[in-house]
Amino acid sequence: MNELIQVNYDTEHPTVSARDLHEALGIEKRFSAWFETNSQGFIECEDFTSVLVGTEVQNNGGIQLRELQDYNLSIDMAKHICLMSRTEKGKRCRQYFIDLEKAWNTPEQIFARALKMADKQIESLKNINTTLRLESKVKDQQISEMKPKVSYYDLVLQCPGLLSTTEISKDYGMSAKAMNKLLHELRIQYCQDKVWFLYQQYAGYGYTQTKTYNYSDSDGVQRSRVHMYWTQKGRLFIYDTLKSEGIVPVIEKDKIA
After folding, report:
1. pTM for the predicted model, two decimal places
2. What is the mean pLDDT of the segment spanning 196-207?
3. Would you state the pLDDT for residue 179?
4. Taking all residues of the chain, what is their mean pLDDT, rounded to a whole number?
5. Quick one: which of 4, 35, 60, 214 could link to 96 by a disulfide (CB 3.0–4.6 Å)?
6. Alpha-carbon gap, residue 197 to 177, rounded angstroms
7. Which residues contact 250 (CB under 8 A, 6 or more apart)?
8. 63-119 pLDDT, tens per residue?
9. Dihedral (Cα; 138, 139, 144, 145), 10-degree rounding
10. In this predicted structure, what is the pLDDT of residue 117?
11. In this predicted structure, what is the pLDDT of residue 210?
């Protein structure tokens, strides 16, 4: 089939330029006025879409690029306009579009379009797959960067081992009584019925755990006693708090010395 008017096949359904049709029909009426008249009764975005096209024009001895208003017409709309022209050129263009539609709907063309659509979907999936692989590499890198921090928290902050105040006080070269008094003066803990408790502002952070022990007194009577123990997280809390007060463990004093 000889190409009477250039047809755009890039969209789901073929379209034709309104300006190309205006020229093929040999219309002398100004394009904008012609289209306004012939587009009556048609629906924008269904039968036609507005587009801008670039064209070269002479300007002061040079060439300038200008944008012109154009419209992509459906083949049905183009056939209708050709019919309304009532000219020999209109009949020829209309028959051209009819033949084009017949060719467009042959099994071979339908199969070719299906293959083309499949190729586009495959290409789209390839792009998605490439993006996912890149995102996966970024996440792997982020996880790799976080590993030292995770190991640190696992070994230090989340260590299940509990320490008594006596054990912690040895790090600072003082007695448990002196450590308890210091923590009390810093408004960290208070004593009630011979049991130490954290003030409310420090409770709930996982700094301590309490355990109950059963024992026999001198008369053989079974009794119980509650002790407060520090977690590794609590041990670091004590370290940071005392360090802000200028009190550091013995090992750090040795390093300074």
Report:
1. 0.41
2. 89
3. 95
4. 80
5. 4
6. 15
7. 171, 172, 173
8. 777 788 999 999 899 999 999 888 898 899 888 888 887 777 777 665 656 566 666
9. 70
10. 64
11. 84
Per-residue model confidence (pLDDT) at position 143: 58
Q: How far apart are CA 223 and CA 217, in angstroms?
A: 7
Label residues 237-248 b or e (16+ Cβ within 10 Å = b). bbbeebeeeebe
Task: Say if CB 58 and CB 47 are below 8 A apart.
Answer: no
